[in-house]
Specification:
Blueprint: H1 7-43, H2 76-89, H3 92-104, H4 109-118, E1 124-132, E2 138-147, H5 149-153, H6 161-171, E3 174-178, H7 184-191, H8 194-203, E4 211-219, H9 221-231
Antiparallel strand pairs: 1-2, 1-4, 3-4
Length: about 240
């Protein structure tokens, strides 16, 4: 029987041997990894415990904390609280001084001159001019608080005397009173003022003249106290 040499058979056996070696190597490596893993577990003296959640009463969710922003320093709320806080620490004298400073800060130089002209307590004539409607009923004042005190005080803007007097009345530094018969000549001078003449002519209707009410203008108690305090040294 002839013995035929088959070179492919040798190759097949060689492949089988290599496959067996690879399988042995993989198995060996797997065993080594298991041994290493087991050894590390034995060396750890404090193994980490497995966390177990115990059933318990449910807690309500906490309400979110709402941060309230402080109002800005120039807000009305902040200013009002500041005034109330300061009022707790003020005595009568301190409160008066602050009030006087506040009032003076609202005056213009011409208004200060008028206050000075009245500071001696003497009255000044003052008039209001009213117009008429077509139905012959009285309308609102065409000119209010025109006074000769502007001339007396030598104000710079004589035409603004009614506005100055109106502002001083609103601040409570001066007050109006009834007509003073002793100031007859002064009323005549006041009625000849251009601003009063223009108002009378504009408010008259044909032969019906404008209505003119006469008053007196004097310094008020508050105005007198302010003037006296301002003249005192150290205020």
């Amino acid at each position: 029987m002839a013995n035929t040499f088959n070179p492919f058979g040798l190759v097949s056996r060689a492949v089988d041997v290599v496959r067996a070696g690879v399988d042995i190597t993989s198995w060996t490596q797997s065993q080594i990894n298991d041994l290493i893993r087991r050894g590390l577990n034995e060396l750890d003296p404090n193994p980490r415990p497995t966390l177990q959640l115990e059933a318990g009463p449910s807690r309500p969710p906490e309400e979110p904390v709402v941060l309230v922003a402080e109002p800005p320093e120039d807000s009305l709320h902040h200013k009002l609280n500041g005034l109330l806080d300061r009022a707790l620490d003020q005595d009568t004298q301190t409160s008066q001084a602050e009030l006087y400073h506040h009032l003076l800060n609202q005056l213009v130089p011409d208004e200060a001159r008028i206050l000075g002209a009245l500071s001696d307590g003497s009255p000044s004539p003052m008039v209001k001019v009213y117009g008429w409607t077509r139905s012959k009923t009285q309308s609102r004042a065409v000119l209010s608080n025109a006074s000769l005190v502007g001339r007396t005080a030598n104000v710079s803007l004589i035409q603004l005397t009614p506005q100055y007097v109106t502002h001083l009345l609103a601040l409570g530094l001066v007050k109006s009173g009834p007509e003073d018969p002793g100031l007859k000549t002064d009323y005549e001078v006041l009625m000849a003022e251009p601003i009063v003449l223009d108002a009378v002519n504009a408010a008259s209707v044909g032969p019906i003249p404008a209505r003119v009410d006469r008053f007196t203008l004097t310094i008020s108690d508050l105005g007198a106290a302010l003037w006296a305090a301002a003249e005192t040294t150290g205020k």
